[in-house]
Amino acid sequence: MRVAEGAIQGPAIQAAMQGAMQAAIQARRASARGGSQAPRR
Q1: Which of 2, 7, 22, 31 has the fewest CB within 10 Å, making it most exposed?
Q2: What integer pLDDT is reported at residue 37 of this predicted model?
């Protein structure tokens, strides 16, 4: 059972982390557009 849970949680955790990363990048771009933060690119 533990192995099955790990196999299911692995991809789910990766997907959640990718979603959080994309949200953080979008927030940075939005703040950069606002001018409060210098664009990194």
Answers
A1: 2
A2: 56
- Beta carbons within 10 angstroms of residue 8's beta carbon: 10
Please, which pLDDT band fits residue 23 given cuts at 50, 70 and 90?
A: very high
Question: Do residues 27 and 37 touch, judged by C-beta distance below 8 A?
Answer: no
Tell which phi-psi region holds residue 35, choosing left (phi > 0), alpha (psi between -120 and 50) or beta: left
CA distance 26 to 4: 34
- Is the Cβ–Cβ distance between 26 and 34 less than 8 Å? no
pLDDT digits (tens, 9 = 90+) for 2-14: 667 767 778 888 8
